[in-house]
Amino acid sequence: MVFFRELKAADAGTYRCGVKESDYTESFTELQLSVKHDAKYPKRVTEYAPFGEKANISCQLPEKHEVHFCKEDNNHICQNISSSKVTEMSGLSERNEERVVTVSIINVSVRDAGVYWCGAETRDTYLTFISLTTKIQLNLITKVGVSRVTGYGGGGLMIKCEHPQYKTKPKYICKESDGCSERKNPGVQNEWMENGDVSLYDDTRAGVLMVFFRELKAADAGTYRCGVKESDYTERFTELQLSVKHDAKYPNSMTESVYLGEEVNISCQFPEEHKVHFCKEDDNHICQNISSSKVTEMSGSSERNEERVVTVSISNVSVRDAGVYWCGAETRDTYLTFISLTTKIQLNLMMALIVRHEGESAEIICPYDSIYKSKPKSLCKGKCSTRDRNPLSETVREEKETKTDRLILKDNVTASVFTGSITALTAEDAGKYWCAVTLETELNYLHTHLMVIMNEELNLTKYEGDDVSIQCKHQDEDQKSFCKAHEASMCVKDGVSLETIRDDRFSFSDEASAGVFTVNITDLREEDSGIYWCGAHVTTKVILEVNKRASDRIITSCIFVTLLLMGASVLLLYKLGYIKTRDTVILHTQAQID
């Protein structure tokens, strides 16, 4: 028997297939071998059969010949199968030159798993030819359980498939609706890898395959196999039935801002009573578990029993804590753990307000996590992004300095701080600044507000009962603010401009095209006098003095003088009356003595 394991064009030609009759005589049959190239052959398929059930294998043959079905041994030689377990069913296709044969193997066991070939057998006088045209890999699969999970459209879903007995074996997840033809696996172990719309991690230490759906869609619903390859031809899996719900409440998105070193409380609402899961996205947008003494949890049920509200507190916030968090509900099954992420929280860090006068310099200090020492950093007015950059934005790399006309960036990797200095400040420099680190996308993690006080003050002197209109500079993204305070910094809290005045006599009118808004004050009173700050990031100092009118002062003076004279008269009369009475008493007393 001569077995060509893989025919090539070079194998074509004339062969002698002979026997040595004696030392000097031989006889042979001449064999003329031609090698055809056809896109349909050889055909390769993979079939999966559950343990103990029946496997059906279909083969397409190019001509009407006897069917040959064989199984590769350990040496990759295709050996004939002679077993009562194999039955054959044949039928012609619509085209007479092709034939479809189905081979069934009943009561499949581990011994039946492996590589099969089927093809056409031709007999001649002295030779038998078997052309193997279809290669079938038969894998034996064992279903160990069934689990059901529900996720929310637009939210995230983490699935942990546990295979503790097969820690180092390759693991996968596939969808049954496409016959599990597309098996998603990380390709590498102990490292997150993207595969289409999901990310996968094969944890060989715990024997767990983690599958993360970053954003669930309706098309993700269906039945999956979450399995492990025990050997080349045997697998175990848990069936996963995934349904995707669409609910206006989930996923929920929010933004929280907190000053460095302070504490932030994050509240999450869950659709059901399950174990709380709280995680933080890493640089690859994978939501990783948080295990820190800085995080504490406080839970309480809402009025509706099917909902639960949990508050997560992060104390002593540092630059490492900035980023995107998710919280959701965790469900455990025999072999699977499901984490449905329902609330997305963007945690931004803030630094104290920077207040400078027009023409001065400002220094913006950006601490960063030491893991980003080698990454480019940016200081941007407005968020740092490739499509929305302010001309002032600049980037600096480790231990280098970037200079423009008025901006200097310096990165101190030893201290894990980069600094931006802006000289000769103008009104255009005022605003919100972001510190960012460039990864695959830019990570905006820390911001501050720069307030520029204009050198030109506005001094107003008015009288009680007057009206006054004050124009304030206004940038598009700023809030309109008119604040009464001794210092400009007192007019901003947590980056938000405060309107400390709550009086019906004060009104605003916006002239956005002119970049100003007007504050109108009616019926001025003396207590309205004081220092005001007009604008938000661009601020003008307004000194308002409200006096009484001259006629009011004359009347007041007359009343005062009149009252003063009346008081003096009363005092004089009193004194005169007292003396007269005293004299009378003295005379009367003297008379009695006499």
TrEMBL record:
Coiled coil: none
Cross-referenced InterPro entries: CD300_family_receptors, Ig-like_dom, Ig-like_dom_sf, Ig-like_fold, Ig_sub, Ig_V-set
GO terms for cellular component: plasma membrane
Spans through the membrane: 554-574
Matches recorded under Pfam families: V-set
Superkingdom in the source lineage: Eukaryota
PANTHER family: CMRF35-LIKE MOLECULE 3-RELATED (PTHR11860:SF118), POLYMERIC-IMMUNOGLOBULIN RECEPTOR (PTHR11860)
Alphabetic keyword roster: Membrane, Transmembrane, Transmembrane helix
Protein name: Ig-like domain-containing protein
Intracellular or extracellular location(s): Membrane
Organism: Cyprinus carpio carpio
Keyword Transmembrane helix applies: yes
Ig-like domain sequence ranges: 174-243
Gene Ontology MF terms in the entry: transmembrane signaling receptor activity
Xref: SUPFAM superfamilies: Immunoglobulin
Main location: membrane
Keyword presence, Transmembrane: yes
